[in-house]
Amino acid sequence: MREQIPEEKLDYVASCNLPTPWAVFQLHGFVKPETGKEHLVLTLGDVGDGQAVLARVHSECLTGDGLFSQRCDCGAQLETALKTIAEEGRGALLYLRQEGRGIGLLNKIRAYNLQDQGADTVEANEQLGFPADMRRYELCKPMLDHFGMASLRLMTNNPRKVDQLRAAGIDVVERIPLQVNRNPHNEGYLQTKALKLGHWLKANLTEPDR
User: Pairing state of beta strands 151-155 and 24-32?
Assistant: First the structure.
């Protein structure tokens, strides 16, 4: 029997319109009172009608999302997810403030420096004294409950994310692959995610998608 993760406390703050190149989303702000950490949800259409919602749970990546880094696939995943939701006319994107798989922006830069010297993404985090992935997803539950979203069609390649969401009581009814922007700068990064973190990615360009 799957262990249930205790629910996080998260406070809703405010909402506004957010025009994007693909659609006018509703942007909703939340804050975790114990830490002051802010998190966001973008919604489009009626997401509280009881039907499974096309969704992306996206962890903050300033270098990829805002600075166009090609070292990862994060920015391309964010853009593709928003575009896909817009094309469907209904969905949600949860934007969680857990930069660098939870180690923070400056430690992420330190990890990048180690990667420049030959470490892979897992080795770099571990050399800095961190686990390979510190991200948590139980705080998604109060966000989804706020909108009445009980089940998701989740855009992800990460099995750990699916498992944690289900452990938090969220019904993930479908997993939709989100493999985008493979390039010479992130090939090693993607192979490490597949081989060491178990992500549903082909380990190299000659293998079939899985």
Answer: unpaired
The pLDDT tens digits of the residues spanning 54-87 come to 999 999 999 999 999 999 999 999 999 999 999 9
Q: In this structure, are residues 146 and 136 in contact, taking their beta carbons and an 8 Å threshold?
A: no
Asked whether 150 and 112 are in contact (CB, 8 A), the reply is no
Which stretches of the chain score pLDDT less than 70?
1-7, 203-210
| Direct distance between the N- and C-terminal alpha carbons of the chain, in angstroms, rounded to an integer | 26
Q: Which residue has the tokens 């009172």?
A: 33
Residues annotated catalytic, as ranges: 133, 135
CB 91 within 8 A of CB 53: yes
- φ, ψ of residue 106 to 5 degrees: the values are -70, -40
For the chain, the average pLDDT equals 91
